[in-house]
Amino acid sequence: MEQLYLAYLPFPDDRHQTSEAYVAGLAWATERIYGTASLLAEGTTGYVAFDYLVDHYSKRRKESPVPETTWHLLLHVIADPDEGASVGLAAFFSGEMSVASSFWQRSARAGHSGATYSLGVLLEQQGDVHLAAEWYLRAAETDHAGAAHELAVLLEQQADVGEAEAWYRRAAGAGHVAAAYSLAMLMERQERSNEAEAWYRRAAIAGHPEAAYRLGLLLGHEPDIDESESWYRRAAEAGHLGAAYKLGQLVAERGTEREAESWYRRAADAGHPDAAHNLALLLAQQGKADEAAWYQRTAGRVIVEPASTTGHENLASGMDRQT
């Protein structure tokens, strides 16, 4: 800390560059205010900043960036792989990508799987997909589920579907929810519906809204329509717009106008054009011409005159869409 304090002074001068000045500043920072708290508190391995102080500056990263001197000193003094991985993450979120890379490379070489994975993420963001895949592979081989998933995504993009499936399965088997969803998508594209259903179900149960929605689509026919509705409802309640739209269609088909309107409105107000269209048709049937016209303009379509409709026939026009 004594090596860094000058970097944090707004206008340092010769008066500050003495050990006495440092000791005086430390005494000021550790003095308890009203006998309760201080800016710095002595811990078992050093000093800990007051929570409010950390929170204050974490919200002002741009105005108060970590000095370059601090990063360079930390690179020299931190040897523990766990600490290096954590500081690398702090550097990453501070926009110091080269510093993050330096910390993560050091920790990765020491066998830290989290740093190895993070390095892969950084390289992929920088466009070096091949090198990113190498680091993902290193982490995945040490059972890092996130790295296995990202590696599988890259392999699938490169049309290496067999290897991609193997890594998806490894990650999903380890409980990685996004990998279970990705594997289900791959199975569905290969028309392996039973396997797709099983993996969608696993991800949906774990709280993945898109998986719940896709499972609803997969089950969206008799005799599974009731279960399909339950998965749409689960996804819609989690904020999935497509699920809210499909749920609106299902309850409209049953003649439950009030609930259909509610789900259509929720999706339409969040920007779903098909939901806005169906809501406009429903409102027009209810004689709410002005509101119907507004939603129809939102949908970007021409409204059908309500006099030409009976029941919910117009609402069924989008039933086959898998939005």
Describe it:
This protein is mainly α. It has a domain at 1-64. It is 64% helix and 2% strand. Strands 1-2 form a two-stranded antiparallel ribbon. The model is unreliable at 302-323 (pLDDT under 50).
Helical residue percent band: 55-70%
Straight-line N-to-C gap: 57 Å
> Which structural class is indicated by helix and strand composition?
mainly alpha
List the total number of helices: 17
Return the average pLDDT rounded to an integer.
87
Instruction: Choose one word for the global shape.
Output: extended
> β content, as a range?
under 5%
Contiguous runs where pLDDT drops below 50 for at least 5 residues: 302-323
Rounded to the nearest angstrom, the radius of gyration is: 28 Å
Q: Spatial order of the strands in the main sheet?
A: 1-2
